[in-house]
């Protein structure tokens, strides 16, 4: 993007142009992603992509601060969102203390919190105290253990009604946008139409206000598994492996370094 988005311009984009969000965890990739991304999410998914864990739950605030600072250094012209990790917003006082740490120690533009109506009081407490919040409803990765796995939402009438309540509650609490994950497309569409703030989908169909993907998934770098909702735009892992093999072969055969690589 040629000009960094603001909360105001993000909200005004609803119904005008879909928003492009992607994750990043370091300055190198953040700089590469910046020209195409409206918003960069420093997701707690880094615990899986970077740390090799099976879920996001053990992510620490210290990790998030480190990676958010790196992303902000690499993408100074992007709107940067910092995920609040599991356990850092169990009550409104704890949430505010930790969100203040994010704002004081990074250049993040907002924090993201998982949960709907059950987290509305916390979101309102943050927004009332100058903390910009992106909500997150639907499938909640931080709840994977309590729910017994990653389960698509919106399959029943009760789930649909709860998601609508969640979206309204997050909006009323002052969030300027929200992510909706792992939700039936027709339900996600209805939710996007029911609120005045942008709804960014991940595994939630095309009829929302934007999309977000984990960069290592969409670039084909993460090989363990590929969620159904991910489109691989690059076979990154194969390209990297081939390049490394070529390098190794040239080292062993003394083809590298050549004269032009030598002082």
From TrEMBL:
Coiled coil: none annotated. Mg(2+) binds at residues 44, 83, 114. GO terms for molecular function: 3-methyl-2-oxobutanoate hydroxymethyltransferase activity; magnesium ion binding; methyltransferase activity. Its cofactor is Mg(2+). It is found in: Cytoplasm. One of its GO terms (biological process) is pantothenate biosynthetic process. One of its GO terms (cellular component) is cytoplasm. 3-methyl-2-oxobutanoate binds at residues 44-45, 83, 112. Pfam families: Pantoate_transf. Binds 1 Mg(2+) ion per subunit. Its main location: cytoplasm. Pathway: Cofactor biosynthesis; (R)-pantothenate biosynthesis; (R)-pantoate from 3-methyl-2-oxobutanoate: step 1/2. Belongs to the PanB family. Homodecamer; pentamer of dimers. This is 3-methyl-2-oxobutanoate hydroxymethyltransferase. It comes from Sulfurimonas autotrophica (strain ATCC BAA-671 / DSM 16294 / JCM 11897 / OK10).
